[in-house]
Amino acid sequence: MAGTRAEQRAATRAALLAEGRRRFAADGYHAVVLADVAAAVGVTKGAAYHHFASKAGLFRAVVADVQHELGERVAGAADRHDDPWERLRAGCRAFLAAGSDPVVRRIVLVDAPAVLGWDEWRAMDEDSSARHLAEALGDLVEAGVIDDQPVEPLARLLSGAMNEAALWLARSQAPAPDALARTEEALDRLLAGLRSRTDRPS
Fold first, then answer.
1. Residue among 109, 134, 104 nearest 121 (CA)
2. Can you spell out the DSSP letters for 149-166?
3. Using CA atoms, how far apart are residues 57 and 54, in angstroms rounded to an integer?
4. What tens digit of pLDDT does each residue of 35-89 get?
5. Beta carbons of 6 and 13 less than 8 angstroms apart
6. What is the SS3 assignment for 15?
7. What is the pTM of this model?
8. Which residues pair with 195 in a beta bridge?
9. What is the rounded CA–CA span in Å between residue 14 and residue 8?
């Protein structure tokens, strides 16, 4: 019975997360009512509060899940390449492209910074996609593709630039059809400036 109860609790939590994710992505944080989320999955409001304490708690858990998936998407794009430089480019491009995903756009890029606050949002970002960026830059410094330098400030500068670009793309009500392509071109020019002069293509 204990195992069954644990499984039921896990299933309830997963159902609340899935429904919360769907509603936060479709309607935005402020339009979602926790009691409605609970009713939609057939549990009481008390059960929802038991698992997440508040609507903000549910939202925080949803953001963490989406951030984790985004980090996996970035890592997966990078892992399709053997060359360290192409790994960096592919990961950065995957992060920018994720802004076109309605779930990522509304939950992670638009609502999360406002609801959770910049510091918490940045900390969650660092635990997901930003961590992969720092690792990629560290590999490039070690390989001599980027001149020897402290990786952390470089990673923060590049992460900040990409977050700003992703936020701009996400918040644009009607971005130009080639907005992502032009942003990727700008990113390539920015990245090219990081390469050691001895490693730049002739």
1. 109
2. --HHHHHHHHHHHHHHHH
3. 5
4. 999 999 999 999 999 999 999 999 999 999 999 999 899 999 999 999 999 999 9
5. no
6. helix
7. 0.85
8. 146
9. 10
